Amino acid sequence: MSMKNRRYPFVQLLVVSAMAWMPGLLMAHGKATGIVKERMQLMKTMGKQMRTIGLMAKGKIPFSAETVGNRAEKIRLSSAKIQALFPEGSLHKPTEALPVIWEQWDQFLSLAKQLEQEAETLEKVAVQGDEQTTLAQFTKLGETCSGCHTDFREKDE
Ligand code: HEC
């Protein structure tokens, strides 16, 4: 460590903490920051995972029970994080979350829980390897996504 750093440890601390913010700023999802950005990214990632299975359902890529199980597991793990990503009143731009989330918090949480359960069921069904049953459960999982979006997310797309 240089002499300078030892004499001005607080300056070093300031520089380090300023830098800690930078990757977050550079990777900003549009203009989203903080927890809004985090949950948008979590949702987007789940969207990608669903899309992969959706391509199988449409016959655009070959069915793979293993891939479905893997994506379902990721969605299950993500759904367990939803609750913590919606602290009360976290509505800064460009969020599409609706204030009604916190008026109907129990309902919101039960939909997050339902997502976790449907994803877990998809994992179990995929292990058995039957394409039709697996894709039927995939549809149920997808309905849970849109069920929550219908009530709790702004409609602008
Ligand atoms: C418990 C409610 C809930 C469930 C379940 C849910 N979402 Fe969301 N989702 C939201 C809310 C609320 C937003 C808006 C978040 C924001 O803009 O701050 C959102 C936003 C999104 C977005 C847009 C993200 C962006 O970049 O703007 C995508 C994509 C998405 N969800 C996909 C999914 C998928 C796929 C599933 C199911 C696997 C799912 N969601 C399940 C509540 C939910």
* Bound ions, cofactors and other small molecules, one mention each: heme C
Number of helices: 7
Strand content: under 5%
**Structural category:** mainly alpha
- How many beta strands in the DSSP annotation? 0
> What is the distance, rounded to the nearest whole angstrom, between the alpha carbons of the first and last residues?
53 Å
Radius of gyration of CA atoms, rounded to a whole number: 20 Å
CATH topology of the largest domain, by name, is Four Helix Bundle (Hemerythrin (Met), subunit A)
Unreliable runs: 1-5, 9-28
Which properties best describe this structure?
157 residues; mainly alpha; Four Helix Bundle (Hemerythrin (Met), subunit A); 2 domains; 7 helices; 0% strand; elongated; disordered N terminus; binds heme C
Explain how this protein is built.
With 157 residues, this protein is mainly alpha-helical. The chain folds into two domains: 1-30, no CATH class; 31-152, Up-down Bundle (Four Helix Bundle (Hemerythrin (Met), subunit A)), CATH 1.20.120. The protein has seven helices and no strands. α4 (65-79) runs antiparallel to α6 and α6 (105-128) packs antiparallel against α7 (131-152). Bound molecules: heme C. Keywords: Electron transport, Heme, Iron, Metal-binding, Transport.
Summarize the structure.
The protein is built from 7 helices and no strands.
Topology:
Layout lengths: L2 H5 L1 H18 L7 H24 L7 H15 L20 H4 L1 H24 L2 H22 L5
Helix pairs in contact: 3-4, 4-6, 6-7
Bound molecules: heme C (HEC).
